[in-house]
Design a protein that fits this description.
The protein is built from seven helices and no strands. It is mainly α. The chain has one domain. Keywords: Membrane, Transmembrane, Transmembrane helix.
Length: 191
């Protein structure tokens, strides 16, 4: 549904335009933050595979969530201009799901992301002779962990924006004929 800004007073029209633009900016920033995570996890998986070490399932989960959230952020950029309250409600629910996914990934990677590199190397590579990429993998995990925290913070803001965009959309939905009489009988103000 497209709202004609001529029907809104100037302050509400500007609010809606800036809410939509800030939502688009956040989506683009989500893309920029999610893409490096895919690269970090791919490099970590490569390093673990080179050492003939089993790749932990949390690495597969991280790359899967990063890929899906990157595609989601890219797909939801343009419909922000044209969609209505149902779209923004669904977007808020999906964003809440991504916040849960990213926060669980942060919890799973916490020991590896905040621990020392020596602990990381002994955990994944054990008694193998030291190689140069062991330390690189540790630094990649720390960088990936930092990007995950940034991604979690960035993912939480569109939920509020999407819910705020529902309000002007709902005010312009067509009401059924009985709506005014029900509101009047309940002593409610008709929007």
């Amino acid at each position: 549904m497209r709202i004609k800004t001529r029907e809104l007073e100037l302050s509400k029209a500007l609010d809606e335009v800036f809410l939509r633009l800030s939502l688009i900016d956040l989506r683009i920033f989500q893309l920029v933050i999610s893409i490096p995570i895919i690269g970090f996890v791919a490099a970590i998986i490569s390093g673990l595979s080179n050492a003939d070490v089993d790749v932990p399932s949390k690495a597969s989960a991280a790359i899967a969530i990063a890929c899906v959230s990157t595609v989601y952020a890219g797909v939801t950029v343009l419909p922000v201009f044209f969609e209505g309250p149902l779209y923004f409600t669904m977007m808020a629910l999906l964003d809440a799901g991504f916040v849960g996914a990213w926060s669980s990934l942060i919890g799973v990677w916490d020991n590896d992301g905040t621990g020392t590199c020596t602990a990381f190397e002994s955990r994944y590579f054990g008694d193998q002779p030291r190689r140069a990429y062991f330390k690189t993998d540790c630094k990649l995990v720390k960088a990936m962990f930092a990007f995950m925290i940034i991604n979690l913070c960035v993912r939480s803001h569109p939920i509020r924006l999407a819910l705020n965009l529902r309000v002007p959309e709902e005010l312009h939905l067509p009401r059924p004929p009985w709506y005014r009489s029900v509101c009047a009988s309940l002593s409610l103000t008709v929007p």
